[in-house]
Design brief:
6-stranded mixed β-sheet, single chain, alpha+beta, 15 strands
Amino acid sequence: MRPKALVFAACACALLAGCAAQRPSGVPEFYNGNLAAARRIYQENLAAEPSSRALYLVRLATLELDSGDIQAARGDFIDAVRIMQDFKASGEFKAVIGEEAAKEYKGDPYEQMMALWYLGLTDYMLGEYNKALPSFKSAALADGGTTDERYRSDAASVFIMMAKTYHAMGEQPKAQDEYNEALGVYTFRETVERVADALAQAYGTVTAQEDEHWAADSAYDFLTEGISAGATEDQDPVAALYAAREFAFDRLEKASKSRQQREHLLKQDPNVIAGYIKQIASVAQQTLQGQGSPLAESPLAPVVENVSDPANDLFVVVGLGRGPFKYRSGEYGELGKIGRSDYASKYADVYVDGRFIGRAETVEDVYYQASTRGGRAMDGVLAGKAVFKGVTETGAAIAFAVAAEADSKETRRNALIAGAALLAASLVTRPEADVRSWETLPDKIQMFAAKVPPGTHTVEVRFGGDGVTRFENLQFTGQDETVVYARSGGGGAWSVAPPRQARGLERKGPATGSGP
């Protein structure tokens, strides 16, 4: 191929890379209330974008639940979870050379957690408690983001629903254990924050030898990884720091025994890293000494007391606002950032037959879950690919400059070929972070429970600043729990699913319905 043809081909690659058509996401249609259009887009994209199938399944399931179709939502959540939990992702090689979004979408840990939580919620609403419980347990594991328990789950909504499921199954001690886990979420987060701050301050005081900066960095990374693994809600920060220190030594030992990690992570002598672990932890301990337990009482205590009261037979779950989204940052868009949407809904008040009975309280901040891992803030970076792209672009520019100044045809020809090859590689390499996200999640999960007299009633969830979701002809038996799921902006579902074991009732199909 002639040099000019090579340059033309490289330019054509640039045009093709920049002209790829983007299919509609269905997210604006969902939030504008045009559910028919959103549903059509989701269903079309299920076939058109196989690598994003799980994403469109959860978006479709969210819409179906908001439309009152609990069974359909459950089926799509099941299909989505099967993909998300299958870690043999397709498209891995394409993601190395092409764009990150070529990988099969499996969701971030918070998205996996919420998919499992919603699956559990639909089973709970349908009275399938033996199916709901494994989903909630899996949601707690997904929230940690790893299989080696590196991060502790801090999703209060998961623990509360696990507790209510145990209660419905007649296992009261286990239910109380899970309520206690929910109560410990905020004290756990406070512990993590204190230990993280102390380690950051201690790390700032370290004066590493000129050739040992890598060791100090590795020691700090090992310690911070161990914070949420070691912290518990009933430990004081010093005890949590000690647990993080032990975790760091354990990780260091495992890394030193792995040839791959020893070469790429440890680089040199593990004993040097161990010395910096001791040094950083010792300074951090001095900062934490005498601080005591973080909180006297969990802020979740009132809502846990409310929803755990067995006398209540109305249980309201609210999805408030618009969920988090991802966007790109950095020179090449290689940084994946988490954004928070604005929305009109400020609160959710519950009315029965026009009478105010209470306000739902927040048990889960989905944005917090999206932007943290184990209580620590995080961002995703595809740095390696960004560096590769930068190098190839620079190399191409240098090669073309050499060609322009070349004295001989052969030198000019070789430089043009090299420059065109590097430019083509740069154009094909797409370091952009994968910003596909489940944007139809709510921003907050809220809950409220109350006692309602037997009979048929109208329940309204009035959203401050964003309308009303009304449920008419809801059935209250005086024994069974009526469950309402309401989403700000209108829509939702309800059911009456009798506990099978807690009250010794015979199994019968639940009554279900939808909002407006």
